[in-house]
Amino acid sequence: MTGFLGRPKPVFDLDPVNAVELIARMNRGLEYPGLKGTIKHQPSDFFTGVAVSPFKATEAEQMIQYFKLKKKIAAGVGFVVTQLGYDVRKFHEALQFIKQCAPEMPVVGNIYILPFGAARVMNQNKIPGCVVTDKLVAELDQERSAADKGEGGRLLRAARMYAIMKGMGFSGVHIGGHNIRYEQVEQIISDGEALSPNWRDLVHHFDYPQPNGFYYFALDPKTGLNAETPVRRQGLPLDAPIGFSYRMSRLFHQLMFEPGKNLYGLMGALSRKVEGSKLEGAYHKPEHLAKVLIFDCHDCGDCALIDVAYSCPMSQCPKNQRNGACGGSFNGWCEVYPEKRRCVYVIAYARLKHYGEEARLDGDSVPPCNWDFYQTSSWINYYLGKDHTAKRTGVPEAKQ
Ligand code: SF4
Questions:
Q1: Do 220 and 248 fall into the same domain?
Q2: 365 lies in a domain?
Q3: Which helix (H) or strand (E) holds 398?
Q4: What is the pLDDT confidence band of residue 395, given thresholds at 50, 70 and 90?
């Protein structure tokens, strides 16, 4: 990556859910406090789209993708576009899932005209989020030895995808690829239109499941696509270990942080007492030290441990995602540290699922980190209702 005179610093303050919420507010006429009262902007007119990947091999990654998509839809998105992929059962899964949540939502299918070189790179997971199976790479390898170097096969594949997507009920398609020409796109559309009346006969051309890959819906053997009922996820194995530290964190949480229970009242009273006093530093330091040792805390002060099943998104997620995983994870691993570090949301899902609580990740959106709290006591901010958890916990929200 390059930028102006070097590499830019990544900025991940607003995740996609937060960005959609911001744009929705801008479209209504953004209001914010000014020196002389509330300032209101003219309403903007953005038509917001978001992406979703149905091409996740593990249950945890796939469910997190869908939970996050539901937050984006609730935030006011205008349309959804899928990640590129070649398993049509997965395209069907995404479409059916979205239609069950938001029947009127326009969904755009992604058709990438796939040459052998790109397929091989994607197959090696060198383009995060783009999944091409061994079987498809082998087919493309054969195709490229044809006189046209595989162009006819590539365009036919894209036309068949167009036909299937139209038949399934996608609102449109995005046709992409490198160095493609206008005439090629025209050919895909006209061939796809001609093929679309018999789209069901083409489904078998796109049977590219990932090894032991998870599907949200049960298989419909008649069509090769999905039945309307979700698979039973309860008995499926966890995608990550639970860990001793999580078990301890739960106990600690019950002891200290559950409103109205155990030490909560005492900690609240103590927090009120020390806030703004000389003792505040002495209160904050041991809290922060303990959290550094256990969670590699970065002292953001607007603590999201409770949202991510006691993994810190500020230190353990390179993109600081607070509303669910990005689309780049692969086989449960973080996009930035493949096969070295599990995605924090895969860990969170597994931890919560062990206790039958994974639906907690399928809730209200989490706001961006409030940097006003940076290097302040997250416990004080929690007990005094200053941080983002106040609405959920029912702690009276403090005036900022
Ligand atoms: S979310 Fe913030 S306060 Fe909580 S552990 Fe991470 S950096 Fe520390």
A1: no
A2: yes
A3: none
A4: confident
